Amino acid sequence: MSDTVWIQLSELAHGRSGDKGDAFNIGLVAHRPEWFPLLKEAVTPDLLRGWFAGMVTGSIHVWELPGIGAINCLLNGALDGGGTTSLRLDAQGKAWGQAVLRLRVPVNRSRAAAAGLSLTTATADQWGGPPL
Amino acid sequence: MSPDERECADGSRRSVRIGGAGGFWGDRVYAPVELLKHEPLDYIMLDYLAELTLSIMAKQKARDASAGWATDLTDWLRAGGMTELHAQGVKLITDAGGANPEACARAVLEVARDSGWNECKVAMVVGDDIMPRLPVLFELDHPLEHMETGESLAESGERVIAANAYLGAGPIAAALEDGANIVITGRVADASLLVGCMLHAAGWAENAIELGLTRQDPLTDWAPADVDDPLEVLAQWTVAGHLIECGAQVTGGNSTDWETIPELTDLALPVAEVSADGTVVITRAERGGGRVDRRTVAEQLVYEIGDPAAYITPDVIIDMRRITLEETGPERVTVAGARGEPQPDDLKVSAAVEGGWFASSSLLVSGPNAIERAENCDALLRGRLAENEDLVIQSEFIGAGITLPPGVPRRKEMIGDPPEVLLRWAVRSDDRGQVVRFGREVAPLVLTGPAGVAGYGARPKPRRQLRYWPALIPREMVEPLVRIEVLTVSDLPRSVDRLTLVRQRTQRFIERLREELEEREWARPLARRLNPEAKEMLEQGHGQEEAHG
């Protein structure tokens, strides 16, 4: 895994999020169709569970929409009981789709470079590098 | 130029143009009028109902028999919308009826009458409201279990405020087949608003009538013989509905590309060009700003979906995985590849159950080390409320990283020392008194906490929380009871019954008074007494009316 570097998710994809009962989804679309394999390898249920540790009481799914080069992440039990009873300001989870774009995700350096991804802001570890 | 002329000029197969005129009750009120004025359309659809809108409407209806629907609708219809619908022959399909489709339909007819359109036919679709039938459903062993927690709704008893099944496209198509110019529904699946138009426009509903089918027969059976793959066509139409049901969210609103989207101030609404064969093009009104490209459409496609292999609607279950988006012209995206599975056996029910009490408040915290000051404020408030054991307090330090997911390390250099933090609290408790006590402790922090605390307002009023309750119900428990009624101006009462008007106003006044009294602990017994007396008075009024009649 020494060839893994961490890049800001916004370099790889754009997205939108919204609520569904006590769950929210984050749909992420690769900027280019050829980056879809990198996107689906980078954003996994494990990565999401790490990010949202302590906030998600249910299962986490990541499904693929290869036709548009997108993945859909669903985080069950993540809205403090649901959009209508949640005490959070963002009770519907609408901010997360953009908020996660600033976080770093892992990609294979050589494959990412070959696919034309800029690696100028890549770091060696997840939380390293300049402030996000 | 009518849509017919425009589409047929180049010899291409005529598609149906459906405008998506808004995304929720609260979206830009008069935007539909602009869309109608400047864009040739066949249909205009408007979704007003979010998850809990209906429970709010149900409460309004309980207070006032003529309320409980999305009044924005008649605002824009009165502001020129009705005249445009009439002049251009555009048909309007909307779920604005909410908890009271009949009252909504009558109010719409009044607008039609006032604008001189006496032949206007307004259809109402009722039967989504299963609240009156809940005892029977429970009796028949349909406990309406919460889809996430498995709890039985039957155990919530009198705390259930509203329960509505999501109807599909069938009733809408049937209403259009009956000649309706405007179709008013309560709860229907958002995308079904568009599918209903297409079932009518593409001849499926007419075919179903010729075949002697009922509205309960699966839509695939409605398809004319020359439709190769009805499921695929239904899936494509449903995706079109999904894409435009949030209005401008597909034309550049809420887009990751917000910095480069032209003219967000005058964002154009979307138009779906949909064909009988399932061809779908998403475009936008010519006038105005915004953008329709693969990126804006893709973001809306993934909006609020679960498993893309099984996006469930009452009409069809869609597999979105092979959907492709192709830019086939300026501001035009062709959507292809949706696959369909037969309609589900159950309909989704959205119920609302009264929960505990809720309040929120916030304070502005400034100065060096604003985060530490805010943390101190929070600790003080919690300390002063320590005896309120049932009070759940959520504190958020806005500006200090509340949209960083909780598992991400908070690094000082990431958040720094912001000049200010907005400290927001939200609390809930089953005990209203504890929520009231929270409200009393916020403002004093300005004088009794760290320096630099500002921005306090009035004490927050406790509000009832409503719990959203998704459940499933077999279709046969709902669909046979769905009723469609087409009304015209001649169905309106000739003159307003003054006594009814006075009665409703009195009832509204007493209800407001009662709420005000409920807010004060000492006045609550009085508030409780007020209601039965008011009822009695109203009943007397009713008796008088009958005597006069």
Number of domain modules of chain A: 1
User: Beta-sheet strand percentage of chain A?
Assistant: 25-35%
Strand content of chain B: 15-25%
Shape verdict of chain B: globular
Helix content of chain A: 10-25%
**Kindly state the mean pLDDT of chain B as a whole number?**
91
What does this structure look like?
The complex is a heterodimer of chains A (132) and B (549). By secondary structure, chain A is of the alpha+beta class. Chain A has one domain. Helices cover 21% and strands 29% of the residues of chain A. Chain A has five helices and six strands, in the order βαββααββαβα. Chain A has helices at 9-12, 36-42, 45-51, 96-99, 109-114, and strands spanning 4-8, 13-20, 23-30, 60-65, 70-75, 104-108. In chain A, strands 2-3-5-4 form a four-stranded antiparallel beta sheet. In chain A, a hairpin with a 2-residue loop joins strand 2 (13-20) and strand 3 (23-30). Chain A is globular and about 45 Å long. Chain B is α+β, with helices and mostly antiparallel strands and 549 residues long. Chain B folds into three domains: 3-128 and 166-344, no CATH class; 354-467, EIF_2_alpha (Alpha-Beta Plaits, 2-Layer Sandwich), CATH 3.30.70.1130; 499-548. Chain B contains 18 helices and 19 strands. In chain B, the strands form three sheets. Chain B has a ten-stranded mixed beta sheet with strand order 11-12-8-7-1-2-3-6-4-19, sandwiched between helices. In chain B, strands 5, 14, 15, 16, 17 and 18 form a six-stranded antiparallel beta sheet that branches. In chain B, strand 11 and strand 12 form a beta hairpin. In chain B, helix 2 (31-38) runs parallel beside helix 4 (72-88), helix 4 crosses helix 5 and helix 17 runs antiparallel to helix 18 (524-548). The longest helix of chain B is centred in the last third of the chain and has 25 residues, at 524-548. Chain B starts with a helix and ends with a helix. Residues 1-12 and 541-549 of chain B have low confidence and may be disordered.
